[in-house]
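Page 42, continued from yesterday. The earlier attempt failed because a stray header line got pasted into the input along with the sequence. Redoing it now with the clean sequence only.
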Amino acid sequence: MIDTRADRQALRAARRLLRERTDRPRAADVAYRAYVTVLVAAVVGVPLGRAAVLAMEPALSIGAVPASAVAAGASLVCLGLFLVGATFGPVIVSAPYLTAVADGPIDRRLTLRRAQLRAHIVVISVVTVLAALGVIAAAPASAGGVIMMLVAACALGSVAGSLWLAGQLRPPWWMRVLIAAWCVGTAAAGLIPAVSGLALWAGPWGWAARVWTRMPQTAVSASALTAIVLLLAAAAGGWIIAGSWRRRLRRDDLARQTARWNTVAALSVSAEVSSAARVLAAPPHGGRQWTWTTGHTAASAIMRRDAAGLLRAPGRTATALVTSLACGALVGWAVGGGFAYPAAALLYLAIGAWATGLRTAASSVGAAALYGTSDRARLVLHAIVPGVASIIFCAVGAAVTAGAGAAVWTAFLAVFAVLLQGFSSLRGPLPLDLLTPIPSPVGDLSIVNVLVWMSDALLLVVVFGGSGTYLLTASPAASATALIAGAVIVVFWADARLSRRTRS
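This time it went through. Structure tokens are written below.
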């Protein structure tokens, strides 16, 4: 046994020594942070959650959301955590702790357990809150069904946390492909009526979907009880095997992820969100020996470079493909409903991975042109590949859930989102004027200016894209007007940003 009394005493002594040697926050500081967190959750989080529930309530019900859709969403969450684990895993410790404790004689199954437990609790809390919002919006449901659904959500969150740790082990590519095929394949098979019943038993996400469909029943069904038992067994098994996984974590990977997290935290505090996202993104390793012809024109050369960049990062590209299909389907389903606004925001976020070349071009504005093109022409050419990819996959997703009409609208919304990706990339550094203190009875409100400046593109897609999606059923002309007006504003605003950056 590694978890002996002597090991635990040595670990407590090492942690106490680190607390004494480092600048730990005082009890009053911790209490103040807890107070601010609770206050923000009560003042901001609760109204936003209530608004989301009220927006989903007219269109969402347990019968309207099939088990296959619940399984698909849950499988995407698990797959996303597994893939992101190689870059940003759940076991993140400070550099002094890594050097003084994790590298010591005490087994890492014990020294890294607290870090994994914290990440597990976060994942379980997020999944449970999402399930609770769905339960509230999809009422009516029996009391027993609600309890079983919340238990299933906790177990599913634990399984997702274990998959996140498995991704941090940096498994070989064939294992990543196998797990991705398992997640996507079982979710996709659930959409086929002939095999949907069998496919929903092939993974934890399908078991949770079984419990979802049984919520209205007052009597406990055998299938729901079996699904609960399987989920709890998978959660327990994942936590047990996680001990050996913690021992296999390499010191270099832990140090690299710790340094990356510190960099991301520093950039996020200074409102450099795009730079923080670039730090989190795994650098491409494949394709260094590729050779391809650039073509005879600047347009063909830039488009081939963007396509090659997508192929060199297959994981990121596959994630963009799946999320584009899912968010396109979500936009098609949300047409005419209150969920149209968050659906438009999610579509904008989903296609961000397609626009890597566009953001890179925006960051090099004012530099020497490689192909003799102006900055404006280069940005337009770099928008072709993300525009085509976004149109195709978002429209296909919308066509699956809402038909051809919604697919056409989603294609135009994808174009608008690509314009906003370029607009956001031209933002530049944070203006210092926004940091001017704004005294108020509740404290300094200058952070509001910073948040609005950071999320300008997201607000625009919600105002114009979300409004157009909401009005599409009642007035297609009003939807088209909203989207065209938003596109005109974004183009002129982006041109002004480009001119300002060129002059500077």
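Notes: The chain is about 75% helix and 0% strand.
Reminder to self: strip header lines before submitting.
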